[in-house]
Fold this sequence. Notes:
By secondary structure, this protein is α+β, with helices and mostly antiparallel strands. It is built from 20 helices and 11 strands. Strand 4 and strand 5 form a beta hairpin. Helix 9 crosses helix 10 and helix 19 (382-397) runs antiparallel to helix 20.
Amino acid sequence: MSNSFKQIAxxxxxxxxxxxxxxxxxxxxxCGSVGQDFEFCKKTTEDWAKKTGNTVKLFxxxxxxxxxxxxxRQMFAAKSxxxxxxxxxxxxxxxxxxxxxxxxxxxxxxxxxxxxxxxANNTADGRLIAMPWFTDAGLLYYRKDLxxxxxxxxxxxxxxxxxxxxxxxxxxRKAGNADMQGFVFQAKAYEGLTCGAVEWLWSxxxxxxxxxxxxxxxxxxxxAKALNTAASWIGTIAPTGVLNYGEEDARGVFQSGNAVFMxxxxxxxxxxxxxxxxxxxxxxxxxxxxGGADGKNAATLGGWQLAVSKYSKHPKEAADxxxxxxxxxxxxxxxxxxxxxxxxxxxxQDKDVLAAAPFFGDLYNVFTSAVPRPATATGLKYNEVSAAxxxxxxxxxxxxxxxxxxxxKLEGKLKQIKRREW
Length: 422
Ligand code: GLC
């Protein structure tokens, strides 16, 4: 073989080698592990892998968003390339934005189809650091059959909820179900408790911990009333065990038929009506109650995005996976089969979606007017603020402190965290 021919042959091999290399990335993704998160993730990523010739590995994160954040922060500090695609809670962008890739070069403007407020929340210094994946809002789940049996209707205030829960719980226990609970919710000391407590505060007109301008407003009589009210449920209509409940613990009790009411996110609808649920067909969903007759309905805004780690070795493929997983087609499938709320408004008018989850239509306002936690105002310090708040709330619920005392101490703590500015 002549020298020049050898050179050409080597050049061709090199070219093929690099083309094959570009198409054979292994992407590791973290999706979540609450409810059906893992199963959905597996199916969708496998479909993408088949389509593109890449390989996907699934990382199983902890269930609690608080634990996931701690883990991701460690990985970012080490500039670890172990995860390419990560799930991002709606309250995180301000805290982790510097570790995420700008997706604008990959999105081709498709973010314009999503709720503008979520896109704005995912945009930092003009960079689109995450694509909206699903949105969340706190809901009240109830047992339609039990309310009917006992001549009650869905409560509109927390006071009504407590009275109805007590009545049905006591009657059902007398009738033989010793395990019946009136109300289950998330009250473990973690981000989920912040979500619930923001709902209580807002519903009683007690503000939102820190206002939009960054002022600390949490130490006020209406907030105290809200927390003292919630504390009165523990051991009366709620088991003391709720002090250690996350989303899945509450769902476990409700879905096995042992609770009249539950506070949870939309994902619980699909599972509650699933094949192996004891209460399929018996579930009603409504807005969470008002704080007294002159209170407001309040749902905390939740939700998750998908983002590419800045330390990924395969940013292009990782971004392609993110765009696929957040697409309208996949969001529609997830809405129908898993009651995950789409981040694309037009899907709330889709008849297949509405047939599977009618409350997406009935409670549309609840989703669009949900109360954001004060993550924007507190920026990098949000997690510290939230942790101080959930601990102060937990102290009240567990009977350690009266709300007035606990909120007074919390105010001092938040001032320390803030110092001159957030
Ligand atoms: C849900 C919400 C998320 C929230 C979390 C709290 O996953 O979507 O925003 O932080 O619950 O447990």
